[in-house]
Design brief:
- The complex is a heterodimer.
- Chain A is of the alpha+beta class.
- Chain A has 7 helices and 23 strands.
- In chain A, the strands form 5 sheets. Chain A has a 9-stranded mixed beta sheet, with no helix packed on it. In chain A, strands 2-1-5-4-3 form a 5-stranded antiparallel beta sheet. A 4-stranded antiparallel beta sheet of chain A has the order 14-15-20-17, with no helix packed on it.
- The longest helix of chain A is centred in the first third of the chain and has 19 residues.
- The mean pLDDT of chain A is 84.
- By secondary structure, chain B is α+β, with helices and mostly antiparallel strands.
- Among the domains of chain B are: 158 residues, Alpha Horseshoe (Leucine-rich Repeat Variant), CATH 1.25.10.10; 90 residues; 109 residues, Sandwich (Immunoglobulin-like), CATH 2.60.40.1150; 112 residues, TATA-Binding Protein, CATH 3.30.310.
- Chain B is 50% helix and 10% strand.
- Chain B is globular and about 100 Å long.
- About 14% of the residues of chain B have low confidence.
- The chains are: A alpha+beta, B alpha+beta.
- At the A-B interface, strand 2, strand 4, helix 2, helix 4 and strand 7 of A face helix 2, helix 5, helix 7, helix 10 and helix 12 of B.
């Protein structure tokens, strides 16, 4: 199982280590540093690195490498999933997960890690159980603790760990009983030069924030459940019921959790809400290139597209760009060659565009590669796949909860080739 | 402490704080103890009392915490005190304590395995599998699996239908991590029939919808494994196939690290069951900001999924990738276009034109890569796309990588007759002959010889020059030997030379980069593990100290070498595949020629293929590492063993005899020499012989028997002074020469030796008859082992009786000496049987067709002059043969029958 964990920042310092079995010397990380040197960018460090006696499995998030050391044949996905869970937990505890924050809260971090694994076996990874064991630091609590001398560590048994619903603690009480569900869909797409779609798929999730008293038993039904043929559920969802009736029936965890994630890949179901018109041309003879892009709405079901940001990695040969946007602001970093244009809202009557020239290295031949345009956007109150919640019912408790459902569509990895 | 500072000096003060009621302080003290107890074991004893007291605490959280912490203190004295509290905790009323205690047993086992066994904790742990709480079950399974890993032989997790049922019940209710442990454990179980397999599959399928990708992949493993048992006609089989696709696709939308592991596994799944993902090509399209390790994996899978239906799309994508920034990725994309051409015949033309477009870009590495793959396309579709050669020749000067140069030279040599200035082109390469890499030198030598054979008049000088360069000025034995062979070929018989050098080459196919099926089957059992990430069986990389349980199929570490890196496989030099051969002249010749001697000889059709193979190997060298890559070409059981190891039989064959053999074959006489060779088996494991491992087999080549040994030194010291001796045996087998190991065998070195045998030793009847007791001595000790030799090595070449004689003898032998046997499941027809047997010196005297049955009358003679007569009855369509044997010494019949079985079934 998992032997040790090292946290390494991007400059290559090990700033935290934790061992669950015998102590593994830091020098094992040298193999990791070697691999890091070979990979030009941090993202390209391979996740599995063999060394003569150990295996190093790493994830790279928030500019920190989380490197787990294992010695025996352990499923690598298990380790990588766990590492991501560690990162999520830190984020949950401290709001952000960064080197200074981890260093500031090193005691809590250490206590949390100790609770998450026992001898390399996962012990408590559900955030609400962890929070019961070790209370997350808040300003108020820090102040109180310093005055009274009490601590962050909870003193009762994490009851949830024993029950048949390990994800929910008992004796939950709220004055306002509320349940909110967010249906969030991200479109991953690759659009080719001519504007036709090469691949498009939707990654959807339903995130919930449930603050209900007692042991409520919820059912959630959809208008068009047939859309969901590739789903993964939170463990609380009763799979049998879904199989037979296509209804989500579950006792929810307390607080924030991801109820389900789904995947729609059938091409005809994925509408592409924006289009990009582009004209980027280099000429062999001249050291100037033309650059022009226009963004416009396509299938938006009448909703506005907002938060549009266009980024593009320009070829190395581009020295500078002089561009004028019809709206929004743009920047070009001559060092990283990254062009970024913050467009904002798209007004269908007056399409935003960015025009101008690129200056190329004098005398150099025209670049071989064409830049790819990366798009970000948001559409409120729309799930682009057409998924709609029909109704939410609660059983097992007497009170009437407040219910709310929100839809949102975002761009995931949305790329336009030029 | 956490940031790497040593604070062990504070030990006594910290221990004093232990008896506190403050939970946080207690935890921190525990944490401190775990880190520093080892450095101050005597002080740590002071803490024991508190631990024992905490284990009795009314609060289960404290009890669990205490037992958990004690297990983490790796000090022997403390572990002794741990046993009693642990035993109590394993039976605690609170499941939280029980599940913590289960893990603690694994911890204790890691520190002191003997103690755990003596105290009977393992049995208690096994009982916990039937616990009422699913979390306890999961942890017990996890702990047992971990313990079992360090004890491969012990049967800790013996699974039966009852325990499987308990695990399946627990599976639904335990945490995600517990589910992984249980699923991995289930995967080790073998259901007794397909109905049980199906019912397990049905209960595992819901796990495919789990949010945790490790759970999903473990479930996929169980399903992939048990699916093997289901009949393909079953409706359920189809449903299951359909259910497997979406979760695999979903894995690809996770974080890149997860994607990577998933893709490595999908690569295996796609090879095993391409139907699962055949419609999902698009999800493998590369996004420009994918990490490079994800990109390369996706590319590999795209090619595996490429088919006529989607090839247009794939090619468009690949062309797009070829203009990306990352050099490695671009190279692989270009190579992928070539692989598509070879895989999907209909697309070849389009691929070639795409490659030509890419060559026009003049980007140096793209051009080089394109030329390398175009060479492969020529190999697959000869005489189809030669029109592009002119374009290729234009780029001759820009090639600076050996592989690309070698490919270009191969093309020039192969199509010398169509390239007007071929001699000039090759001559220009010859100028810097000594600065080229071996790969290019070999290729240049072959190309010029080809050119000479095609245009003898103009190029005589050139060929002289290259032969003298290769044979006189070069230090490379490989190059020198090849030079000599060509030289002699050309000087003795130019016609034969032409037939050898310009022989038609077998086509290459896309299978070259597939994983070998047996290895693939084994790897499928390891889905989701490190083995699946490396595409090697665990035995190939897990440390020696920790044993590994092999799953379902025996390990084949050696053969994985040639398959693990598809990108190098098509062009790897043959010397790279035979690392163990010491390149002396004799050995190399043996290697070059052994292909036409080694394979199981079974009649004329196969014989001709093997001639081709031999010839190609002579030619190809750096490029055509066919022997490792094309199983179907060699076609026979020998391939199962790594090619280099399978045929060391004729290392002793002198150069002269090897050459004459080659000529014999090419001039069509077709001498079949050498009987079937059983793959090598380990005779003496390293454990029993202080680190010396001996594996071997027996061969019979052209009338001489030899024992092929492979000695591996697995000890840490050098071994010298080898000697061998046989005990007296039934047929008087004895070494004909002393065992010669020329150099001392250094650690981890392997040496192959062929020991000639004769049958003039002293005779003593053994039980069983073919038992051979051997003593091997080295500087360390003397070791004994015994082995059974296959009887057919004793069948002599003049074992053919004439018909009259056969009839007379058959009648003459009393009927009670006749023995009947059944040979089952042998799908060959009479011709094939007869020719295959003849290869092993069992001769067909006559053949008759009686009542639609083929009757073969056969004879063979043993080295000691015993004749055995056989009647083999073959019914067309029935794979079972009836074999009647008559012999004056009936005790050999049984072994002759076994020899028949081995020869026919392999």
């Amino acid at each position: 199982m998992i032997h040790s964990l090292f946290l390494i920042n991007s400059s290559g310092d090990i700033f935290l280590e934790k061992h669950w079995k015998s102590v593994v010397s830091r020098s094992v990380c040298d193999y990791f540093f070697e691999a890091q040197e070979r990979a030009t960018e941090a993202e390209n460090v391979p996740p599995v690195i063999p060394t003569p006696h150990h295996y190093l499995l790493s994830v790279y998030r928030h500019k920190i490498f989380f490197v787990a050391v294992i010695q025996t044949e352990v499923p690598p996905l298990f380790v990588i999933e766990f590492l991501h869970r560690v990162v999520d937990t830190f984020q949950d505890y401290f709001g952000v997960c960064s080197e200074p924050v981890i260093k500031d809260n090193v005691v809590v971090v250490y206590e949390v890690l100790e609770e998450m694994l026992d001898n390399g076996f996962p012990l408590a990874t559900e955030s609400n159980i962890l929070k019961e064991l070790i209370k997350p630091p808040t300003i108020l609590r820090t102040v109180v603790n310093t005055i009274t001398g009490s601590t962050n560590v909870g003193d009762q048994l994490p009851t949830g760990q024993l029950s048949v619903v390990p994800w929910r603690r008992t004796g939950v009480k709220y004055t306002n009983n509320e349940a909110y569900f967010d249906v969030i869909e991200e479109i991953d797409a690759i659009i080719d030069k001519s504007g036709s779609t090469i691949t498009a798929e939707i990654q959807g999730v339903i995130d919930a924030c449930v603050k209900l008293t007692g042991m409520p038993d919820l059912t959630l039904s959809f208008m068009n459940p047939r859309l969901l043929d590739d789903v993964s559920f939170h463990p609380c969802v009763r799979f049998k019921r879904w199989e037979s009736e296509r209804i989500l029936s579950f006792i929810p965890p307390d607080g924030n959790f991801r109820l389900l994630s789904y995947h729609v890949s059938a091409q005809n179901l994925v509408a592409i809400p924006v289009y990009v018109k582009h004209n980027i041309s280099f000429r062999d003879s001249s050291s100037l290139g033309r650059f022009e892009i226009t963004v416009g709405p396509k299938q938006t079901m009448g909703k506005t597209i907002e938060g549009v940001i266009v980024t593009s990695q320009m070829p190395k040969g581009v020295l500078n760009m002089s561009l004028t946007p019809s709206q929004g602001t743009h920047t070009f970093d001559p060092v990283t060659k990254m062009l970024s244009w913050d467009v904002g809202k798209i007004n269908p009557q007056k399409l935003p565009s960015l025009k101008g020239t690129m200056s190329l290295q004098a005398g150099a031949s025209k670049p071989d590669e064409n830049p790819t345009i990366n798009l970000q956007f948001k559409i409120q109150q729309l799930a682009i796949s057409g998924l709609k919640v029909n109704r939410l019912d609660m059983y097992g408790e007497k009170y009437k909860p407040f219910k709310g459902i929100k839809y949102m569509t975002k761009a995931g990895k949305f790329q336009v080739r030029t | 402490m956490t940031v790497g500072k040593d604070v062990s000096a504070l030990f006594p003060d910290v221990v004093n704080c232990m008896q506190t009621d403050n939970l946080e302080l207690k935890k921190l003290v525990y944490l401190y103890l775990m880190n520093y107890a080892k450095s101050q074991p005597d002080m740590a004893i002071m803490a024991v009392n508190t631990f024992v007291k905490d284990c009795e605490d009314p609060n289960p959280l404290i009890r669990a915490l205490a037992v958990r912490t004690m297990g983490c203190i790796r000090v022997d004295k403390i572990t002794e005190y741990l046993c009693e509290p642990l035993r109590k905790c394993l039976k605690d009323e609170d499941p939280y304590v029980r599940k913590t205690a289960a893990v603690c047993v694994a911890k204790l086992h890691d520190i002191n395995a003997q103690l755990v066994e003596d105290q009977g904790f393992l049995d208690t742990l096994k009982d916990l599998i039937s616990d009422s709480n699913p979390m306890v079950v999961a942890n017990a399974v996890a702990a047992l699996s971990e313990i079992a890993e360090s004890h491969p032989s012990s049967n800790l997790l013996d699974l039966n239908p009852q325990s499987i049922n308990k695990l399946l019940t627990a599976l639904n209710e335990c945490t995600e991590w517990g589910q992984i442990f249980i699923l991995d454990c289930l995967a080790n179980y073998t259901p007794k029939d397909d109905r049980e397999a199906q019912s397990i599959c049905e209960r595992v399928t819901p796990r495919l919808s789990h949010a945790n990708s490790a759970v999903v992949l473990s479930a996929v493993k169980v399903l992939m494994k048990f699916m093997e048992m289901l009949s393909k006609d079953l409706d359920y089989y189809g449903t299951l196939l359909k259910k497997l696709a979406p979760p695999l696709v979903t894995l690809l939308s996770a974080e890149p690290e997860l994607q990577y592991v998933a893709l490595r596994n999908i690569n295996l799944i796609v090879q095993k069951r391409p139907e699962i993902l055949k419609h999902e090509m698009k999800v493998f399209f590369v996004k420009y900001n994918d990490p490079i390790y994800v990109k390369l994996e996706k590319l590999d899978i795209m090619i595996r999924l490429a088919s006529q239906a989607n090839i247009a799309q794939v090619l468009a994508e690949l062309k797009e990738y070829a203009t990306e920034v990352d050099v490695d990725f671009v190279r692989k994309a270009v190579r992928a276009i070539g692989r598509c051409a070879i895989k999907v015949e209909q697309s070849a033309e389009r691929c070639v034109s795409t490659l030509l477009d890419l060559i026009q870009t003049k980007v140096n590495y793209v051009v080089q890569e394109a030329i390398v793959v175009i060479k492969d396309i020529f190999r697959k579709y000869p005489n189809k796309y030669e029109s592009v050669i002119a374009t290729l020749c234009e780029n001759l000067d820009s090639l600076d990588e050996p592989e690309a140069r070698a490919a270009m030279i191969w093309i020039v040599g192969e199509y010398a007759e169509r390239i007007d200035n071929a001699d000039e082109l090759l001559e220009s390469f010859l100028e810097g002959f000594h600065d080229e890499s071996t790969q290019v030198q070999l290729q240049l030598l072959t190309a010029i010889v080809k050119l000479f054979l095609k245009k003898p008049t103009e190029t005589q000088e050139l060929v002289q020059q290259v032969l003298s360069l290769a044979t006189q000025d070069s230090d490379n034995p490989d190059l020198r030997d090849r030079g000599y062979i060509y030289w002699r070929l050309l000087s003795t018989d130019p016609v034969a030379a032409k037939e050898v050098v310009l022989a038609e080459k077998p086509l290459i196919s896309e299978e070259t980069d597939l994983i070998e099926p047996t290895l693939l089957d084994e790897l499928i059992c390891y889905i989701g593990t490190l083995a699946s990430v490396y595409h090697k069986p665990p035995s190939a990389f897990v440390e020696g100290g920790r044993g590994v349980v092999h799953k379902s199929l025996p390990p084949r570490t050696a053969s994985s070498e040639s398959t693990e890196s598809p990108e190098t496989a098509p062009a790897g030099a043959p010397s790279g595949e035979q690392p163990d051969v010491i390149p002396t002249q004799g050995d190399l010749l043996g290697d070059l020629l052994n292909l036409d001697l080694g394979p199981p000889v079974s009649g004329p059709p196969l014989a001709t293929t093997s001639v081709q193979m031999g010839a190609v190997d002579l030619l190809g060298g750096g490029l055509d590492s066919l022997m490792g890559d094309e199983p179907e070409g060699i076609g026979g059981p020998n391939f199962v063993a790594p090619p280099a190891a399978a045929v060391p039989a004729n290392l002793g064959a002198s150069m002269g005899s090897g050459l004459s053999d080659l000529f014999d074959l090419t001039s069509g006489v077709g001498t079949l020499s050498g009987s079937y060779v059983v793959p090598k088996a380990v005779w003496l494991p390293a454990m029993k012989a202080k680190g010396l491992e001996i594996s071997g087999t027996f061969t019979r080549q052209v009338g001489s028997i030899s024992m092929d040994l492979q000695l591996t030194n697995k000890a840490l010291q050098v071994m010298t002074d080898f000697a061998i001796q046989f005990n007296r045996n039934s047929f008087g087998l004895a070494p004909a020469a002393p065992l010669q190991v020329h150099a001392p065998l250094s650690p981890n070195q392997t040496v192959e030796i062929s020991l000639p045998l004769n049958t003039v030793g002293s005779v003593m009847k053994m039980e069983p008859l073919n038992n051979l007791q051997v003593a091997v001595k080295n500087n360390i000790d003397v070791f004994y082992f015994s082995t059974l030799y296959p009887l057919h090595i004793l069948f002599v070449e003049d074992g053919k009786m004439d018909r009259q004689m056969f009839l007379a003898t058959w009648k003459d032998i009393p009927n009670e000496n006749e023995a009947q046997f059944q040979i089952r499941d042998c799908p060959l027809n009479a011709e094939a049987v007869s020719s295959r047997l003849q290869g092993s010196n069992i001769f067909t005297v006559a053949k008759r067709n009686v009542e639609a049955q083929d009757m073969l009358y056969q004879s063979l003679k043993l080295t000691n002059g015993i004749w055995v007569l056989a009647e083999l009855r073959i019914q067309p369509g029935n794979p079972s043969f009836t074999l009647s044997l008559k012999c004056r010494a009936p005790e050999v019949s049984q072994h002759v029958y076994q020899a028949y079985e081995t020869i026919l079934k392999n």
